[in-house]
Amino acid sequence: MNTITVIGLGAGDLEQLPLGVYKKLLKAQRLYVRTAEHPVLKELLNEGISYESFDAIYEKHDEFQTVYKEIVETLITLAQSNNVHYAVPGHPLVAEQTVQWLVDAEKEGRIQLEIVGGQSFLDPIFNALRIDPIEGFQLLDGTVFKRDDVQMSQHVLIAQVYDAFSASEVKLTLMEKYPEDYPVTIVTAAGTSKEVLRVVPLYELDRATELNNLTTIYVPPVTSREERIKEWSTFREIITKLRAPDGCPWDREQTHETLKKYLIEEVHEFLQAVNDQDDDGMIEELGDVLLQVFLHAQIGEDNGYFSLEDVLESVSSKMIHRHPHVFGNVQVESSEDVLQNWQQLKLAEKGQQTQRVLDGLERSDSSLLTSFNYQKAASKVGFDWQDPEGVWLKFEEEWLEFKQEIKVGSAGSQLDELGDVLFTIINVARFYGLSPEEAMMHANRKFRNRFDYVEDKVNQDKGKFSAYTLDELEVFWQQAKNRKGGE
Fold it and tell me: Is residue 115 within 8 Å of 100, Cβ to Cβ?
């Protein structure tokens, strides 16, 4: 099996190239280079060393990944007949995708690989920027990195920013976290006589003229917690601080039990924002819900029972396992298939095949939701009416029984029959795909809105409800219903 020898050209000019690497280049019989745009190669030409570049492949494709794949397959094909020398900028194992794919090919037994190190571009970058990597740094690929890859508290170096287009993509991604005027440094040809450092506000990143294959973007760490508030880790720091011994007395006193009511309130307020189609309101209320989630997770960690990582592991594992049509090879035809798979997987996970149908469906904070869950579960096993007519007849039956008990029954029997009426009303809602919980929330909001109007009218005139007849109050109520927004 022939060998592909990968040679690192370093980050600077010929004078910075190690002697051993230089000798390798001199002895290379067939030398290929990823790109001819490197100061060492221009000087090697003057010394009579010839090579063939893959620059033409860049012109064929719109994406770097496709370019790199063709380069790798070309090298593997060439190595089938002869040994091949392949030179890349910097160090072969630092930010060099083609070499990573060659390593994969070696593991698959397709080629034999030799790697001759060169100076990586990191050393001159650190020197040029005067930063110590032990403080924490990230090296990201500008062609593929995403918003959530960035850790704002660290030194961030972004390579593979060749031109205005790639710089624009990097800029837009960074602006999802950083302010548009955040200072970034464009480092070009670090460690060479042509080294250039230019500090620009983030929004001007793609307007720079020095962008080429020797360019690296540096984003300094954000040291202020208040300026890192778009990061999950910052929010976790805030919650940890609130619960710390020197934090907030109220937050330190809270338990899972004391926070229950707040979680319910925040969920209802979020649902209200959804009903109002209020995007800003949804942002705020989702934040409040998230606060409750993080507080519960922090309490679990403080008590030594579980942490946020346990919560993430649980829900992530669940989502992957219950979506085999997304993360596996299961085929589905419709959302009904998805729901059926979901229920089967859920039962298998919890070993509920031998448990009762209604186990685990009670909701202590919502009798409406408990009834709805019971009826839905019973329906899934076939215990249900075939059409709405049956449930309507049942409602009429329960309504008559309730009216009869109101006339002659005891308080206990009246309460019992009222429960049957309400339970049947919930079943009616379920049959028509309506949420009784949402319906009651809407009714309560509507009543509050109209009654507030009536109260305002009373306060503007006589000042007391007792000063009005019921008919007079009804006039105000009708005005509330008819006014704009008086649903």
Answer: no
